[in-house]
Specification:
Chain A: Keywords: Cytoplasm, Endonuclease, Exonuclease, Exosome, Hydrolase, Nuclease, Nucleus, RNA-binding, rRNA processing. The complex is a heterodimer of chains A (977) and B (245). Chain A is α+β, with helices and mostly antiparallel strands and 977 residues long. Helix content of chain A is 31%, strand content 25%. In chain A, helix 21 (699-722) packs across helix 25. The radius of gyration of chain A is 32 Å and the shape is globular. The termini of chain A are far apart. Helices cover 31% and strands 28% of the residues of chain B. The termini of chain B are far apart. Classes of the chains: A alpha+beta (977), B alpha+beta (245). Chains A and B meet through strand 2, strand 3 and helix 4 of A and helix 4 of B.
Chain lengths: 977, 245
C-alpha cells in the first residue's frame, strides 16, 4: 500500500494542518479515509525542570492549566543516573502490573502513539494506564507527540504502520533528550529491531525491560514479574495446535456465512468440552477435545467452523478435569506427551462409540479457527508441587500453576521462587499461547499468602470474581461532603445561607412527623429502607416506603458516581462486605438510622382495604426514623398484644396489608423457588465459623419484601412512562422449554410427575404438585433444581426490548425495576435519578438519557451482580468447608445428576454438592452399568453387592472436608454409605 | 465504546485541536462568474461546498410568484462520493428536505426579500466532500454567494457547530466527533449575538446550553471575519479592474 503525498499547510503561528490518509477495511470493503490532523507547538513536556513549556500552555474550558508532574530531581540509578523513562507499547501490554508496582517506574513518559496502540489492543489496560496518569503519585504523563509539530513523524513510502509508530516513539525520546539536556531519557522497548534502530539513531540509553529492572538494586524479586520475551524457547518444532486463520480469511468467512462468531462457554464438569451459542443455529455448537478447542479460554470470543456431519456428537456424560489427565507433565519439556494424548483420545473414543448408537441427540460440532478477543485477566492459582524441580539453583525454573477455575488449563510460568511459593495462593497473568506449546504461558504477579488462610482465600475469591476491593481513591473520597460524619439535615429549612448551597431544599417534603421505622437483618448498618403506615379518615390506608436518598450525595458525572457505576454493587461475603460507595455514605449519611433526621426518597400510596392502589405519590423528603428493628424484634413487637402505641399499630397495618399483597402476587403466578442457601454462624470471640444454618424466614421478612416489591413496581411504571427509551428496568425472561427437558424427563421416568412451564402460574402450580409423600424435602429439591433451569434476571434499559418482554417471570409482574437499595446497587441510583427527573425535582443527567450509555451501564451492572453472587457463594462454600473440617458427620443427601462415571450428590444441611466418582464407589470398574434413559447407575459396591443408584435417590453420605494438595482448595468430599 | 479519545484529559481532540479552535476555514467568492450571478466555494476542514446563486429573476411558473416578496428556491445535492462510503442520496430524502426547509427559513429572514417582489432567487448547492458540519458549511457558502450576486441582505450569516462532551463544550465538530457528541448548529447574524438559525437534534442539558452557545457564537464571529476578508479581497480586485479600464 503506497502512501499518497500529504500536504501541509501553515494556518497561523504554531498551528499547521496536515492530513492522515489511510485505507480501512470494513465489511470486507476497502475505503479510503482522509482525516485532518492539526500540528501545534503548544504541547508541553510536563517536566518541572523546564521553564519554557510553562509559558506555552493554554487553559481548558474550565480555565484550569495542565499540571507539570515530572519531578525535577528524578530517580538516579547506576549507569543511567537521573532519568525519565519513555516506554514502548509492548512494555505496557505485557507488564502493566510492573508499571503499577510501587517499587519501580517513576517519572514515565507515555507517547500518544503508544497510548493509541494500547487503546486499540486492550481497553482494560488502557484504562489502567489512564488511572496511573490521573493519579499523581507515580508521575506518569502522556505526551501528545502526534500533535506536536516537531515530534510528528510522517509515514514514509512503503513503510508499515508499526515501523512508523516505532519511529515516532524514538522521536519522542530524541526530542525529550534535546529538550531536557540535564536529564537522561531512557527508552525501554522489548522490540529488538526498534532497539537497534534507536541505538543507530543516536539515542544513548535504550534498554529492554529486563535490562532496566536489573539496574535497580535488589531487583531479583522483581525479575519474576517480567514476562521475558524469550522466556520459553521453542524446544521443538512440533505443533500441538493448528494455526488460526488469517484475519482476511476470518472476515471473509464471517461475511459469507461459512464461519461463526460467539463466546465459548466451557463445561465446568469437563474442561475438554465447550459450547458456543450461535443465534442462527437452533442448538449450541459443541467443541470437543483440546484440538478443536484450539487454545481457547472460557469466555473468549472466538470464530468457529462447523465440522462435517460425520463428526457430530452428543454432549459427553463424562466428567474430566485437568487433574487426572495432565498430572505427569514435565513443565520444561514440550516433547509430545503420547501417554497423555492417548488417554485423552481413549476418552473421546468411548464417547464417540456411545454417540453413534444414539443418533437422535447428536449436536453439531465445530472447531475454533480464530480468536477475536481473549478473556484473559489475572488468575489465581497454586503451583503444582510435583512440577517443581528440586535442584537448588537460583535460576528461573518452569513450573505449572493450577488455576482455581476448573474449566481452565494449567499455566506454565517461570520463577526463581517456585519452592518458596509452594502452598501459597498466587496471582498469575497469561502472556501467550503459541501453537508449539501445550500449555498457555504466563508470569507470576503477586503472592496472596498461604492457601487456606482467611486473608488469602478472601482476596483470591475477590480477584477470581473480578470484584474491585481496593480502597476508594482520593478523587472519589473528595466528592464526599466536607463535614464528614458531622453532616446534618439543616435545622432551619428557610435559612438563605443553606438555600444557597442546596437550592433544591424547598422541593423536599417534610415527613419528620410520620412514625417511620426500619426493619432489617440483625446488625445491619447500611439501612436503605424504612416504612410507615396509618389509617386515613376515609377508611383507606396511607403507606409509605422511604428509601435512603443516595443521589443527593452521589451526583452524576463525578468520580464518585463513576466508581459506583464501575463497582455496580456491594459484595457480601461471610465475614466481610465490599462496599459500592464509601463507608461514610453507606453506613452513616445515607443510612436511615433511627433517631436522626435523614434525607429520603419517599413513595407514598393510598391503599384500600384489599391493598389495591388508590393513589401514589413520589417525593424527595426529610424523615426521622423512630426505631430500627431486626426482623425478630419486629415480629415480637407485633405479636405482643400489650403494645398499643401508634408505631406498633402502624406495623400491624403493614403486616396485614403485606399478606394481602403476597396473596395477590401468588394468585398472579409468582414463583416460590428455592436455593440451598445457608448461613454461617461466626463465633463472636474468635470469629471462627461455628455452625451452618439454613436461612429461615419470618413473617416480617415478607412484610418488608412485599412493600419493596410494590415500590419497585410503582417506580418502574413511573420512570418508563417518563423515559420510554432509557428507563432502567429489570426483567426476567421465561425459561426456554429446552431448559426443563431434562428435569421433566427425570421426573417422568422416576416419579411419574411433570412440570408445566407454559406460564409462571402453571409452573407454580405444578411445582406445588411435585410432592413425594415419603419425603418432605423432595418438593424443595425440585424447586432447587427448577431454579437452576431458570433464566437469570437482568437489568436493561427500556429501549432495548419491546414492552411485552419487560415481564418479570418470577414475580409475575409486567414491569419491574430496582429502586429500594441505592446504597448497595447502582441500578437503584439510576432509578432514583430518573424518578427525581420525572417528578421535576432536578434535570436528568445526559448519560441516563442516552440509549447506548444506558446499555453499557446495564451490561456492566449485570456482570457485577452476577460476579457478586458467585463471590458470595464461594465465600460461603469456603466457610462451610472450614466448619466441616472440624466435624465430620453422616448426613442425608440427594442424587441430582448421574454421569456414566460418577454421581452428583447435594447435601441440604450444608448446601454443598459434590461429585462422587465411580472409582470411589466400586473396586470393579467393569461392573458399572450406566442406564442413561433411566438416569441410573448400577455397580458392585466395595463389599461386592450389586447396588443401583438413580437420580432423586435419598442417600446417606459421610461428609468430610479434604484439602486438595495440588490446588490448595478445600472441598467437600462425600463418601457414599 | 469509541475507538478514540474524543477529548483527552490533556485537553486535545481527535484531530489535535483544543476545545475552542475552529477547523481550517477557507472560502472564495465569484468562482463561477460566467455561469451564475453569484457563486462561492467554502472549505471547512475537509468539508467542501460549492454554491451557485441565480436571480433575482422571473419565476418559471406564476404559481411560485409572490406579489410582495422574492421566493427562494434551494436545491441541495450531496454527491455520492462526498462521504467515506459511496452512497447515492436522492434530493427527496427526508434528511435533505429538512435541511433545505431550515435554510429557506433562515435566508427568508436575512435577505431583504420585499425589495424583490415577483422574482425568484435560486440557490444550488453541491457538497463535494463531507467531514461534519454539513449545515454550517452550506449556510456559509450561501451567504457568500448571495453577497457575490449583489442581493441585499441585512448582514452576514455565519454558521458553525458546537457540541458538548464530558462537561466540555467543543467547537466546530468533524464527522468523527459528530457521531459521538451531541451538538447544535447556529447561524449568527453579523457581529451581533442574534441567531438566524439554531438546530439541535440530540440532547444537551439545559444548564450547559449557554456555555455551548457562547463558544458557538464566538466561533461564528471568527468565521464572519474570515468571510468578510474574502469579500473585501474580491471587492478590491474588482475595484482595481474598474479603475484600470
Amino acid at each position: 500500500m503506497s502512501v499518497p503525498l500529504v500536504t501541509q499547510k501553515r494556518l497561523s503561528e504554531g498551528l499547521t494542518v496536515t492530513s492522515k490518509v489511510f485505507v480501512r477495511s470494513r465489511n470486507g470493503n476497502a475505503s479510503k479515509i482522509v482525516r485532518e490532523h492539526y500540528l501545534r507547538n503548544d504541547i508541553p513536556c510536563l517536566s518541572r525542570s523546564c521553564n519554557i513549556c510553562q509559558t506555552i500552555i493554554s487553559p481548558n474550558a474550565q480555565g484550569e492549566l495542565q499540571k507539570f508532574v515530572l519531578n525535577e530531581n528524578p530517580l538516579k540509578l547506576k549507569e543511567i543516573s537521573a532519568h525519565y523513562v519513555v516506554i514502548d507499547t509492548n512494555i505496557i501490554l505485557q507488564s502493566i502490573d510492573l508499571l503499577e508496582n510501587v517499587e519501580v517506574f517513576y517519572d514515565v513518559i507515555i507517547p500518544q502513539t503508544v497510548l493509541d496502540e494500547v487503546r486499540n489492543k486492550s481497553f482494560p489496560i488502557y484504562t489502567r494506564i489512564r488511572t496511573l496518569v490521573s493519579d499523581d503519585t507515580k508521575r506518569f504523563v502522556v505526551f501528545h507527540n502526534e500533535f506536536r509539530e516537531d515530534t510528528f513523524v510522517k509515514r514514509l513510502e512503503n513503510e508499515s504502520i508499526n515501523d512508523r509508530n516505532d519511529a515516532a516513539i524514538r522521536k519522542v525520546a530524541e526530542w525529550y533528550q534535546n529538550h531536557l539536556p540535564n536529564i537522561n531519557i531512557v527508552l525501554i522497548t522489548n522490540d529488538r529491531d526498534n532497539k537497534a534502530k534507536a541505538i543507530k539513531q543516536g539515542i544513548k540509553y535504550v534498554k529492554t525491560l529486563y535490562e532496566y529492572i536489573e539496574l535497580y538494586p535488589n531487583a531479583n524479586h522483581l525479575k519474576d514479574l517480567i514476562p521475558e520475551e524469550t522466556n520459553f524457547q521453542k524446544r521443538s518444532d512440533e505443533k500441538f495446535f493448528q494455526d488460526y486463520y488469517s484475519t482476511a480469511r476470518l472476515m471473509g468467512g464471517l461475511k459469507n456465512g461459512t464461519l461463526y462468531q460467539g463466546a465459548i462457554n466451557i463445561n465446568s464438569y469437563n474442561f475438554l468440552e465447550g459450547e458456543i451459542t450461535i443465534p442462527s443455529l437452533p442448538k449450541p455448537l459443541l467443541i470437543l477435545g483440546s484440538e478443536s478447542l484450539n487454545r481457547a479460554f472460557n469466555g473468549d470470543s472466538v470464530i468457529v467452523e462447523i465440522l462435517p456431519k460425520s463428526q457430530w456428537k452428543k454432549p459427553s456424560s463424562l466428567v474430566i478435569d485437568d487433574d487426572n489427565l495432565n498430572s505427569n507433565d514435565d513443565p520444561d519439556s514440550n516433547s509430545p506427551q503420547d501417554s497423555i494424548n492417548d488417554k485423552e483420545r481413549r476418552l473421546l473414543t468411548q464417547e464417540a462409540i456411545q454417540s453413534q448408537t444414539d443418533a437422535s441427540e447428536i449436536q453439531p460440532t465445530g472447531r475454533i479457527v480464530g480468536i477475536v478477543k481473549r478473556s484473559w485477566r489475572l488468575y489465581v492459582g497454586q503451583i503444582v508441587s510435583n512440577s517443581v524441580s528440586k535442584s537448588n539453583t537460583n535460576s528461573a525454573k518452569s513450573c505449572f500453576v493450577k488455576l482455581m477455575d476448573k474449566s481452565l488449563p494449567r499455566v506454565r510460568i517461570k520463577t526463581r521462587r517456585a519452592t518458596e511459593l509452594l502452598g501459597s495462593k498466587i496471582v498469575v497473568a497469561i502472556d501467550s499461547w503459541g501453537t508449539s506449546s501445550k500449555f498457555p504461558e504466563g508470569h507470576f504477579v503477586r503472592n496472596l499468602g498461604t492457601s487456606e488462610s482467611v486473608e488469602a482465600e478472601t482476596e483470591a475469591l475477590l480477584l477470581e470474581h473480578d470484584v474491585e476491593y481496593r480502597p476508594f481513591a482520593k478523587t472519589v473520597l473528595d466528592c464526599l461532603p466536607a463535614e464528614g460524619h458531622d453532616w446534618k439535615v439543616p435545622e432551619n429549612l428557610n435559612d438563605p445561607e443553606i438555600l444557597k448551597k442546596d437550592p433544591l431544599l424547598p422541593k423536599r417534603k417534610d415527613y419528620r412527623d410520620k412514625l417511620i421505622c426500619s426493619i432489617d437483618p440483625p446488625g445491619c448498618v447500611d439501612i436503605d429502607d424504612a416504612l410507615h403506615a396509618k389509617r386515613l379518615p376515609n377508611g383507606n390506608y396511607e403507606v409509605g416506603v422511604h428509601i435512603a436518598d443516595v443521589t443527593h450525595f452521589v451526583k452524576a458525572g463525578t468520580p464518585l458516581d463513576a466508581e459506583g457505576a464501575s463497582r455496580g454493587t456491594s459484595v457480601y461475603l461471610v465475614d466481610k462486605r465490599i462496599d459500592m460507595l464509601p463507608i461514610l455514605l453507606g453506613t452513616d449519611l445515607c443510612s436511615l438510622k433511627p433517631y436522626v433526621e435523614r434525607f429520603a426518597f419517599s413513595v407514598i400510596w393510598e391503599l384500600d382495604e384489599n391493598a389495591d392502589i388508590v393513589n401514589v405519590e413520589y417525593n424527595k423528603s426529610i424523615i426521622k426514623s423512630r426505631e430500627a428493628f431486626s426482623y425478630e424484634r419486629a415480629q415480637i413487637r407485633i405479636d405482643d398484644a400489650t403494645q398499643q402505641d401508634d408505631l406498633t399499630k402502624g406495623m400491624r397495618i403493614l403486616l396485614q396489608l403485606s399478606k394481602k399483597l403476597k396473596q395477590k402476587r401468588l394468585d398472579a403466578g409468582a414463583l416460590n423457588l428455592s436455593s440451598p442457601e445457608v448461613k454461617v454462624h461466626m463465633d463472636s470471640e474468635t470469629s471462627d465459623p461455628g455452625e451452618v444454618e439454613i436461612k429461615k424466614l419470618l413473617e416480617t421478612n415478607s412484610l418488608v419484601e412485599e412493600f419493596m416489591l410494590l415500590a419497585n413496581i410503582s417506580v418502574a411504571r413511573k420512570i418508563y412512562e417518563e423515559f420510554p427509551q432509557t428507563a432502567m428496568l429489570r426483567r426476567h425472561a421465561p425459561p426456554p422449554s429446552t431448559n426443563f427437558e431434562k428435569l421433566n424427563d427425570m421426573l417422568r421416568v422416576k416419579k411419574n410427575l411433570s412440570i408445566s412451564i407454559e406460564s409462571s402460574k402453571t409452573l407454580a402450580d405444578s411445582l406445588d404438585r411435585c410432592i413425594d409423600p415419603a419425603d418432605d424435602y423432595f418438593n424443595t429439591l425440585i424447586r432447587i433444581m427448577s431454579t437452576r433451569c431458570m433464566m437469570a434476571a437482568e437489568y436493561f434499559s427500556s429501549g432495548s426490548y419491546g414492552y411485552p418482554e419487560f415481564r418479570h417471570y418470577g414475580l409475575a409482574v409486567d414491569i419491574y425495576t430496582h429502586f429500594t437499595s441505592p446504597i448497595r446497587r447502582y441500578c437503584d441510583i439510576v432509578a432514583h435519578r430518573q424518578l427525581a427527573a420525572s417528578i421535576g425535582y432536578e434535570s436528568l443527567d445526559l448519560s441516563h438519557r442516552d440509549k447506548d450509555k444506558m446499555e453499557r451501564v446495564c451490561k456492566n451492572i449485570n456482570k457485577r451482580h452476577r460476579n457478586a453472587q458467585f463471590a458470595g457463594r464461594a465465600s460461603i462454600e469456603y466457610y462451610v468447608g472450614q466448619v466441616m473440617k472440624n466435624n465430620e458427620s453422616e448426613e442425608t443427601g440427594y442424587v441430582i445428576r448421574v454421569f456414566s462415571n460418577g454421581i452428583v450428590v447435594l447435601v441440604p444441611k450444608f448446601g454443598v454438592e459434590s461429585l462422587i466418582k465411580v472409582e470411589e464407589l466400586t473396586n470393579e470398574v467393569n461392573s458399572i452399568d450406566f442406564k442413561e434413559d433411566e438416569y441410573s447407575l448400577s455397580f458392585k459396591n466395595k463389599n461386592g453387592n450389586l447396588r443401583s443408584i438413580g437420580v432423586f435417590d435419598k442417600v446417606t453420605v459421610e461428609v468430610k472436608s479434604e484439602l486438595d494438595k495440588s490446588v490448595g482448595k478445600r472441598k467437600a468430599v462425600l463418601v457414599l454409605k | 465504546m469509541s475507538r478514540f479519545e474524543i477529548y483527552s484529559p490533556e485537553g486535545l481532540r481527535v484531530d489535535g485541536r483544543r476545545w475552542n479552535e475552529l477547523r481550517r476555514f477557507e472560502c472564495r467568492i465569484n468562482t463561477h462568474p460566467d455561469s451564475s450571478d453569484g457563486s462561492s466555494y467554502v472549505e471547512q476542514g475537509n468539508s467542501k461546498v460549492i454554491c451557485i446563486v441565480n436571480g433575482p429573476m422571473e419565476p418559471s411558473s406564476k404559481a411560485e410568484m409572490s406579489t410582495s416578496k422574492a421566493t427562494l428556491k434551494i436545491s441541495l445535492n450531496v454527491t455520492p462520493f462526498s462521504s467515506i462510503d459511496r452512497k447515492k442520496r436522492s434530493k427527496n430524502e427526508r434528511r435533505i428536505q429538512e435541511i433545505v426547509t431550515s435554510l429557506k427559513r433562515t435566508f427568508e429572514q436575512s435577505i431583504i426579500v420585499n425589495k424583490y417582489p415577483r422574482t425568484t432567487i435560486s440557490i444550488t448547492l453541491h457538497v463535494l466532500a463531507l467531514d461534519g458540519g454539513l449545515l454550517s458549511s452550506i449556510t456559509n457558502a450561501i451567504t457568500l454567494a448571495l453577497i457575490d450576486a449583489g442581493i441585499a441582505m441585512y448582514d452576514y450569516i455565519s454558521s458553525v457547530s458546537a457540541g458538548f462532551y464530558n462537561n466540555t463544550p467543543l467547537l466546530d465538530l468533524n464527522q468523527l466527533e459528530e457521531s459521538d457528541v451531541s451538538f447544535l448548529t447556529i447561524g449568527v447574524v453579523g457581529k451581533s449575538e442574534k441567531l438566524a438559525l439554531l438546530l439541535l437534534e440530540n440532547k444537551i442539558p439545559l444548564d450547559q446550553l449557554e456555555s455551548v452557545l457562547a463558544i458557538a457564537i464566538a466561533g461564528g464571529h471568527r468565521i464572519r471575519d474570515l468571510m468578510d476578508k474574502e469579500v473585501r479581497r474580491h471587492g478590491d480586485l474588482r475595484l482595481s479592474k474598474l479603475a484600470n479600464k
